[in-house]
Amino acid sequence: xxxxxxxxxxxxxxxxxxxxxxxxxxxxxxxxxxxxxxxxxxxxxxxxxxxxxxxxxxxxxxxxxxxxxxxxxxxxxxxxxxxxxxxxxxxxxxxxxxxxxxxxxxxxxxxxxxxxxxxxxxxxxxxxxxxxxxxxxxxxxxxxxxxxxxxxxxxxxxxxxxxxxxxxxxxxxxxxxxxxxxxxxxxxxxxxxxxxxxxxxxxxxxxxxxxxxxxxxxxxxxxxxxxxxxxxxxxxxxxxxxxxxxxxxxxxxxxxxxxxxxxxxxxxxxxxxxxxxxxxxxxxxxxxxxxxxxxxxxxxxxxxxxxxxxxxxxxxxxxxxxxxxxxxxxxxxxxxxxxxxxxxxxxxxxxxxxxxxxxxxxxxxxxxxxxxxxxxxx
Length: 378
Prior knowledge:
Elements: H1 6-12, H2 29-42, H3 47-56, H4 58-61, H5 74-83, H6 86-100, E1 107-115, E2 128-135, E3 140-146, H7 153-163, E4 170-173, H8 180-188, E5 192-197, H9 202-215, E6 226-234, E7 237-246, E8 263-273, E9 276-286, H10 292-303, H11 305-316, H12 329-348, H13 356-365, H14 367-377
Parallel strand pairs: 1-4, 4-5
Antiparallel strand pairs: 1-2, 2-3, 5-9, 6-7, 7-8, 8-9
Helix pairs in contact: 2-3, 2-12, 3-5, 5-12, 6-12, 7-8, 12-14, 13-14
C-alpha cells in the first residue's frame, strides 16, 4: 500500500528535510506526517489528539506505513513540527496542489487571515498572519505565504505569486494588494487581475469614483462600455448587484503606470430587508476586457473566499482556537489544515449531500471514509 501513496506523499514531499538528528529518528518523517494529515481530516486539533487518533487507528495507518516503533508521543509531534522548515513544507504543498488542479482559467483569490491565538506574550511573538491563494471554482488552496512580523501583505503577496502557476487565471485581490508591482507580477505570470480600489489609493480611487458618479447619471454615456445586473432573493432579502465597466480610459492619467490596465469597474450592491435599504459601491481596476458579466463574476467569487475558505478554517477546523505556537509549529499546522481541506474538497467531488464537517466526522468514526479520502487525493 505504501507504493500507492508514492506519487503523492513520497514524490511531492520527498525533498522535505527531516530536522532531527539521526540517532533520534525512531519514527520516520513520513509516518509522522501521515498521522497528522489523517488526524487533521478526522478532527484532531492538538498534539495529544494526534497520539489518540494514532493509537485508535493504528491498524489503519499500518496499511500504509510500517510503524515499527509504534505511534509517536505528543512531544515527538511537537518537536518535529516546531523544527520542520516551513519554507520547504510550503513548497512541497504547492507542488502537490498543482497536481490537483483540474479547472483551468480559474479565479484565484488572494486574501489574508490571522491565526488569532498563535501569539505568545512570553516570547513577544505576534499572531501569525498568512496570505493564501484560493482557486474559487476548484475550491482548492493553491499556496500560502506567512507575512513577516515587521511587514504586511504588500510584501508577502509578490512572494506568493512568484511560486504559483497562474497562466490563464484571473487573480483578485482586495485594496491592500492593489499595487503597481503586484499588478506587474500577475501579468508577468501570464494571468489577468481585478484589483479593488479604496481611499488609500488616493487620486486613482477618487478619479475612478468621480468618473462613474458622473457617467452613470447620464441617460446615455459614451464612456460606459458594458453593464450587467443580477438580482437575488431569499431569506426575506432582495439583493441587486449592478456592474458598470469602461475601457475608454483616455481621461485616466495613471493608466500607463499600471501594467496592462484595460478597464475600470464600479459594482453597486443594493440590499433590501423589510423596510431597510442599504447601498454599497466598490471600485476596481482590471486587465480584463470590458465584459461586465465576467468581471462581476470575478468580483463576487473573490468575496466568496470568506465562506469557502476562512469560515471553514475557523468554524470547522477551529483554527482561531489553536494555541499551538512553538517556533515553526503554528505556520506548519496552518499548511496541514490547507492540505486536509484540499483532500476533503477533492473527495467531495464524488460525494453528494455531505458538508466538510460531516465528511470529517465520517472519516473519524470509521476507516472506510478515511480510506476513500486518502485514495482520491493521493
